[in-house]
Amino acid sequence: MKSMIRNFSIIAHIDHGKSTLADRLLEITGTLSKFQMKEQVLDDMDLERERGITIKSHPIRLPYKAKDGQHYILNLIDTPGHVDFSYEVSRSLAACEGALLLVDASQGIEAQTVSNTFLALDNDLEIIPVINKVDLPGAQIESTKEQIIDLIGCEENDIILTSAKTGEGVDTLLEAIISRIPPPKVQVNAPARGLIFDSIYDSYRGAIPYVRIVDGEIRPGQKLVSFAGQNKYEITEVGHFHLKRVKSSVLRSGDVGYIVAQIRNIKDLRVGDTVTTVENPAAEPLADYKEMKSMVFSGLYPVQNEDYEELRQSLEKLQLNDASLHFEPETSDALGFGFRCGFLGMLHLEIVQERLEREFNQQIISTVPNVEYHAFLRNGKMIKVDTPAKMPRADIERIEEPYVRAEIITPSEYIGGLMKLTQDKRAIYKNTHYLDKTKVQLMYEIPLSEIVFDFYDKLKTVSRGYASLDYEHIGYRPGNLVKLDIMINGESVDALSVITHREYAQYQGRELVVKLRSLIPRHQFEVPIQAAIGSKILARENVKALRKNVTAKCYGGDISRKRKLLERQKKGKKRMKQVGAVQVPQEAFMAVLRIEKKKT
């Protein structure tokens, strides 16, 4: 029976058709009826539908009757394509034996295609190369075949041509999944071991781990224990993933499924941990996932200080479903009690912020995102600086900043513009590799702080949307960095301070105080805004004093208009934080992101 199971993922660059191909697989295998089908059926999060991207990996079980008459079970785990969610991809691949490498026929190999391929090879997966969107007028099938052969060294006959939109070639692909992806190694009688590759929090049933059962079997009535937590929980339900969770009597070796055990202590559940049973315990855990390192740090603070505990619980629940999110408590003179959170990139930060607001009804203020710097003192001590507030005032010998190896894949006509862009970002050129006559791979080493904010958008602008980017962390290097303090009404606002390269400090400080002047509302007194490095003032602007009665416009006319204005004012004030005697709106804390980095 177990030889009838195939566990596989779909990996690709963003927007190459993973979710659409998953839709066709669901339709052709009869998992969903025509009535149940809709576009991006596995992207069930509102955010995924709005943005048209996959954020979470989604497991689903597909029953399939092959041409040989045998009935198979295909466990598909759809994966994201954006670089910020590569951790989701790596976890999904660990639960599989094979992967479909999907490449857009009109765009060819892209940066994430390359990195996801290496992830699959690292996991010793069987890779089935698939060229998608072959029905498009601009499809360059022969060129794309050459690029795939160059990347993974396969034979031309191994490549399957499909159109996920029309369903062309999907039947051939399903047969290839059966014949080419190996079945899982089955050890039903061994001690139970399952790898947690994801989890969610249910208000009524507690934390629910998603597991790939490697050895043995797990049934309701048994007691579940994890190697990291050691607390024992009685299993009340196990099951598989159809469109929703469907309970079954047992999860056996080779299965992908979920376990309900009323796990209330969220800290007992960690993605990458191994679960076993008290009745038939395993002696050793399975190999854990590689710990994901946060790239970008930002402070998240509740608008109302009394919501601090609620925000902490919301972050804990969200962390169950997003193992790459890290957070720890911190305090700010300007914003009070909150959390320092680590993210994989700016998109990841945006998604977490929106999920907190939508799914947990949290009203939050976020501070300027930063990367983690290393400040070395003259006494030999090293301090990790993930927020400007932690930067030592004196005795600094040197400051090191994180560098990444960036891979840009672009049509050759945009090389000049991209080289100018990377030069402006302090990039170190490494090499150029032509994938074919028209497509080029550029390799650079770039400070992480230069690419996390707007580099991706500018890359797309310069290349008219054709270039793609992937990057990986390569370590720390010394940099000429300074802390740029922003002072409002004579008081330093830690949430607005930034760490920047000395060459850019003068320009950034001047631009920032000009921007803040337009964002900070006028008060009954003049408000000075200053940018400084230590005791040296680089730039100053003043918010002029308010001299007129702002409520004058509310008198006369319809009373409902007055109420509406007062209600709107009340909502606006909720979003403000008091800094000394000056009110600073949320937009001011994000103004730093819109300031260009230029030399003076």
- The outline comes out as globular
Per DSSP, the total helix count is 14
Oligomeric state as shown:
single chain
Counted up, domains total 5
Global mean pLDDT: 81
What name goes with the CATH superfamily of the largest domain? Answer: P-loop containing nucleotide triphosphate hydrolases
Tell me the strand percentage band.
25-35%
Task: Work out the helicity level.
Answer: 10-25%
Low-confidence stretches: 40-44
Give Rg in angstroms. 27 Å
* Euclidean distance between termini CA atoms: 70 Å
Q: Please name the CATH architecture of the largest domain.
A: 3-Layer(aba) Sandwich
Q: The biggest beta sheet, please?
A: 8 strands, antiparallel
What CATH calls the topology of the largest domain is: Rossmann fold
Q: Widest sheet: strand order?
A: 11-10-16-7-8-15-12-13
Structural class: alpha+beta
Q: Which CATH class of the largest domain applies here?
A: Alpha Beta
How many DSSP E strands? Answer: 33
Blueprint (SSEs and pairs):
Blueprint: E1 5-12, H1 18-28, H2 46-51, E2 58-65, E3 71-78, H3 86-93, E4 98-104, H4 111-122, E5 126-132, H5 141-152, E6 160-161, H6 170-180, E7 193-202, E8 206-215, E9 217-218, E10 223-226, E11 232-234, E12 237-241, E13 245-248, E14 251-252, E15 256-260, E16 274-277, E17 296-302, H7 308-321, E18 326-332, E19 336-343, H8 346-359, E20 364-366, E21 373-377, E22 382-385, E23 396-411, H9 415-424, E24 428-434, E25 439-447, H10 448-451, H11 455-462, E26 468-479, E27 481-488, E28 491-492, E29 498-501, H12 502-519, E30 527-533, E31 536-543, H13 559-574, E32 577-579, E33 582-584, H14 586-590
Parallel strand pairs: 1-3, 1-4, 4-5, 5-6
Antiparallel strand pairs: 2-3, 7-8, 7-16, 8-15, 9-14, 10-11, 10-16, 12-13, 12-15, 17-19, 17-20, 18-19, 21-22, 21-23, 23-25, 23-26, 24-25, 27-28, 27-29, 27-30, 30-31, 32-33
